[in-house]
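Quick start: read one record
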Amino acid sequence: MCFQFQGDPMRMFTQFFGTDDPFGGIFGMGGGHGPNVFFNMGGGGMDDGMNGFTSFGGMPHGHRRAAPKQDPTVQHELQVSLEDIYHGCTKKMKITRKVLNADGHSTRVEDKVLTINIKPGWKSGTKITFPKEGDQHPGRVPADIVFVIKDKPHKVFKREACDIRYIHRISLRDALCGCTVEVPTLVGPSTTLRLDSVKPNTVRRITGKGLPNPKAPGHYGDLIVQFEVEFPSKPITDPLQRDQLMRILPPLSHA
């Protein structure tokens, strides 16, 4: 069988396949398209005619520009005193950063003040984030600036969550005979404790004299008072004093 080109491509297509719509059931195009689906691809129609093929296998129609990556987070430590943690406070931190100019390429150096509102009772390790406040560079997302709250060492107290611990040293005489102790507090006047006797590492707890509980507004931790007994730095060499102590002090109990 041979076919002659008659100068009409549409007619030749129909003559060869025996129908004017051989692909209607294959590509789901329905009837009526016929060979026009191929012969109409000339000129600007090629791109439109191939749109159905560009999605095979999830392939995109064209190349997409990758989203700009963000610079790594910049982290700073912010030390806060226990007094400021107790009351809450506002800290203003000045940062110096690079900022893009209007041309989108060159940069200038700029100072900016970031305001940090510290809530009463915030624990050490709390993070405050300022999104995209880092240096600006073409084609990149500025870094986040993060401040991490740290407890500033205190000369009197040590923080333990919402409690604060105070170590009070007393003499052996006061530990044996009893004494009255003035205990400082973080805020407000001191508290008086009367003790009959004190064993090493004895602990007294003063309710509500600690730090605010950020998860329970209006509630406070405790002030923990720990006593350390100081023994004489020099041995007792006087025989009379030693005999007196031997008679007064009880022997070790093995009960």
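The chain is about 15% helix and 30% strand.
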